[in-house]
Specification:
Its main location: cytoplasm. This protein is an alpha/beta fold and 415 residues long. The protein contains 17 helices and 16 strands. Strands 1, 2, 3, 4, 5, 14, 15 and 16 form an eight-stranded mixed sheet that branches. Strands 6-7-8-9-10-11-12-13 form an eight-stranded parallel sheet. It binds N-(iminomethyl)-L-glutamic acid and fe (iii) ion. Fe (iii) ion (FE) binds next to loops.
Length: 415
Amino acid sequence: MDTKKTTLLYNIGQLLTMDDHEGQVRGKDMNELSVKENYAVLMKDGVIEKIGPSSEMEKMEADEKVDCEGKLVTPGLVDPHTHLVFGGSREHEMALKQQGVPYLDILKQGGGILSTVRSTREASEKELYEKAMFHLNRIASFGVTTVEAKSGYGMDRETELKQLRVAKKAGENHPLDLVSTFLGAHAITEDYKEDPEKLLDEMADLFQEIKDEDLAEFVDIFTETGVFTIEQSRRYLQKAKDLGFDLKMHADEIDPLGGTDLAVELGARSGDHLAVATDEGISKLADSDTIGVLLPGTIFYLGKGEFARARDMIEAGASIAISTDFNPGSSVTENLQLIMSLAALKMKMTPEEIWHAVTVNAAHAINRGDEAGQINVGRKADVVVWDAPNYMYIPYHYGVNHVRTVYKAGQKLYE
Ligand code: NIG
Ligand code: FE
């Protein structure tokens, strides 16, 4: 990283500041986006110092002056749902997928998440850390400056804490901002098959320790057929809430169990996946502050036909974010730009909705609404200069990296 104190970005063709609306953006407001044309942004000591027309600012003094050549500039993206820390990989499961073996059947046979659990238990803290840093670099290369990271490949005390400590250290040492989530309730390991409640109790026993060591802000659970039921999820998450954790849920991903409804009932910060949410679930979501974090990359990768009903959710008035769900099994990509294309093509979200979904709403989904996802004076200078003429171009031209330069707190992070 360089250590320039002031950087002036001028001759910006389109600047998205993403601050048209107060707080998380819901319903039809998601489609309202103002664009500042021919603008400039001055970053000083890591913070946005001034925003204004390029003609008025381009003569200003700065340690570095960058001609953006009429390109697009936006806030750094926020990826609000990743399984960043894991051992091994699962390319050997690709053939099973091709033969049509369902994701939950692979899991039932001890593969899937449970295969990554074995690799993660075996991996040293150092190995996990180096791997997490590798993936964080790649996440950043796609324009992301704030990321959420879940545990969930341990399901035993030692490995869950190992994953959370790795995430914490990675967050401290990597320029990206990292928000940590405890997902100890991610699958049922062999020893607990007959008594999943016992596994949940053991994971809940870690809550206090995780709080005391400041290892996670959120608690998450995989509520799904063959994993945890609605009743188990309610009890477990309520305990976490009572201890002061904010909540997330892997909800209504494959079978419609009513996870969306439960996320709303518990006041979860987000309900994630929601691919098979019912009409009732969608209407509850729309009447709540719970953000729907939709993961179209996962549906694409699992080869499933049913993408989350983003249109119905937005039309009902919900707040929607999108994310990679980066993990070694159901969505093996760090590329949030690709997810933006899938959101457009498969969920029919408009470019304006998509930009809200990867900036301001994604930031609110991880309680970073006051810090990330917008460009305004006094805020941390997390900014991306894109090799693109306008904001519609990013979801349109799919599968490649459009980033020209990523600035994290005013410092060049990637170009
Ligand atoms: O969000 N659905 C559960 N958890 C992850 C997948 C994890 C894995 O397959 O390793 C998800 O899709
Ligand atoms: Fe996930």
